[in-house]
Amino acid sequence: MESRMLTETTGRSASDLTAELENWRGVDWVSVWDGPPQGGSPEFRAWCERYGWVPETFDRQLNVTTRSGGSWTFFDVLGGQWSPVKSLTHYPWHVKAATAAENREVLSVAAETWPVYLKAAVAVLGAPTWSGSWDDEDFPEPPVPSYWLSREFRLKKRRPYEFAYWKPAGDVPGEPYIVLSQSVSFQTWTADLAGGSAISVDVYAPADFLDRR
Q1: Which 3-state string (H, E, C) describes 126-140?
Q2: Nearest 10 degrees: CA dihedral of 45, 48, 54, 57?
Q3: Is 139 in contact with 175 (CB distance < 8 Å)?
Q4: CA distances from 95 to 81, 90, 107 (A)
Q5: What angle do CA 202, 204, 205 make, to 5 degrees?
Q6: What are the φ and ψ backbone dihedral angles of 202, each rounded to 5 degrees?
Q7: Helices (H), the chain
C-alpha cells in the first residue's frame, strides 16, 4: 500500500512477497547454509542457476535477484567470507516521508500495510508460531539471541514494531527459522525529522545445524 504523500522505495507488493516465499519451497537448505562456491566460477554460476538466482554483487557480501524479482542479501558467519551462511534478508516494503509533517501518515500506512503482508506470508508458510506487536506481554524470547533483538532493546526502541515468526517443522535438514517484521524508524516519533517504516523477511539457519558445520 502507498500514500500519495509518502514514497515506497522497493516497488514490490504483497503478492510479490508470496511469490518470493514460494520460491524457497523445495530449496536444499544444506547447500544454502554451506554457502556459494568462489564468485565467478562455473560452480558458482551453477549454484545460482539451480534456483534461478542472478547475482547482483561479487564482493564481500552476496546479493541475488530471484526469478520473481526480489533482492536477497546473504550474511555469512565470519563476515566477508561468503560461507557458511547464517541468514538471508529481503525487504518487500519500505515507505519514507519527505518531511516530519508526514510522520503521522507513516504510522497510519504502516498499520494498514502490516496485516496485508502478514496475510501474504501466511498464504505460503501457514499460521505463524507467534505474531504480535512490540509491547505484547507474551512477546517471545529468541531461540538464539541473534535471531531478534532483546526485550530491553525492543521496549526501549519499539523495534520490531510488528513481528511474526515461524519455527522449523523439523522434517527438512537445515530448515530455517523465518521472521517477518516491521520496523518504524526513530525519526517517525519526532516532530522535526522525516521518518519511515519497512517490512523485512529474515531467514535464519538453525543454530544446531550451524554448530555442526
Answers
A1: CCCCEEEECCCCCCC
A2: -70
A3: no
A4: 32, 15, 10
A5: 160
A6: -120, 130
A7: 14-23, 29-34, 42-49, 103-125, 151-157, 207-211
Spatial separation of the C-alpha atoms in residues 197 and 183, rounded to whole Å? 6
The answer to whether 98 and 194 have CB atoms below 8 angstroms apart is yes
Sequence-distant (≥ 6) Cβ neighbours of residue 81 within 8 angstroms: none
* pLDDT tens digits, one per residue of 85-102: 999 999 999 999 999 999
pTM: 0.93
What are the two backbone dihedrals, phi and then psi, of residue 140, each rounded to the nearest 5 degrees?
-75, 150
Q: Three-state DSSP class for 54?
A: strand
Residue with cell 519451497: 25
Q: How far apart are CA 72 and CA 146, in angstroms?
A: 19
Q: In which residue are the cell numbers 529468541 written?
A: 142
Please give the pLDDT value at position 213.
62
Grid cell listed for 155: 521496549
According to DSSP, residue 101 is labeled G
**Buried-exposed string 167-205: b where 16+ CB fall within 10 A, e elsewhere:** ebeeeeebbbbbbbbbbbbebbeeeeebbbbbbbbbbbb
Q: Strand 7-8 vs strand 130-133: parallel, antiparallel, or unpaired? A: unpaired
How far from chain centre, in Å, is Cα 96?
Answer: 18
